[in-house]
């Protein structure tokens, strides 16, 4: 009787571990937002799930909030918003961003984009910026990122659950609809 109970326990534990590893490696991964680079979209300390499957099937799009391997340290991940896509020319001038010469209208930033530079995004690369441009280490400092470094798309904030003075609470993260002025 005891042997049968132990056998069932270990079978359940192994199946549970296999399901957890499958979900963690291929579907979703938890991350903690640290720092102020994505304010007001994300606050430091919020916990989110990064969805890993969609970029195996589709290309990342402008406006997607992604988690990727930090270019300066292999032990950390960054969270930023995709601004420039492969083959595009991104120009930062007078606090605004231009994509292939057309002004990008952004309604989620908390500060103007500092700097004056022009970058042509290579194939399988992306130009990323934090939403809090004055407090963000992003493509302006470390350059474009390679597609292979993208861990996934920020999908769901699960902590804190309830809205407070420092957080919007639990929510699904959606892409931004961009408008480029002609």
Characterize the structure shown.
With 182 residues, the chain is an alpha+beta fold. It has a single domain, classed as Umud Fragment, subunit A. 19% of the residues lie in helices and 34% in strands. The chain has three helices and 13 strands; from the N terminus they run H-E-E-H-E-E-E-E-E-E-E-H-E-E-E-E. The mean pLDDT is 86.
What is the number of domains? 1
CATH architecture: Ribbon
Low-confidence stretches: none
The helical percent reads 10-25%
- Provide the residue-averaged pLDDT: 86
CATH homologous superfamily heading? Umud Fragment, subunit A
Which CATH class? Mainly Beta
Q: Any idea of the CATH topology? A: Umud Fragment, subunit A
Order of helices and strands: HEEHEEEEEEEHEEEE
Provide the fold topology.
Elements: H1 2-27, E1 28-32, E2 47-51, H2 54-57, E3 65-69, E4 77-84, E5 89-93, E6 96-99, E7 102-105, E8 117-120, E9 125-129, H3 139-142, E10 145-146, E11 150-159, E12 171-172, E13 179-181
Antiparallel strand pairs: 1-2, 2-11, 3-4, 3-11, 4-9, 5-6, 5-8, 6-7, 7-13, 9-10, 11-12
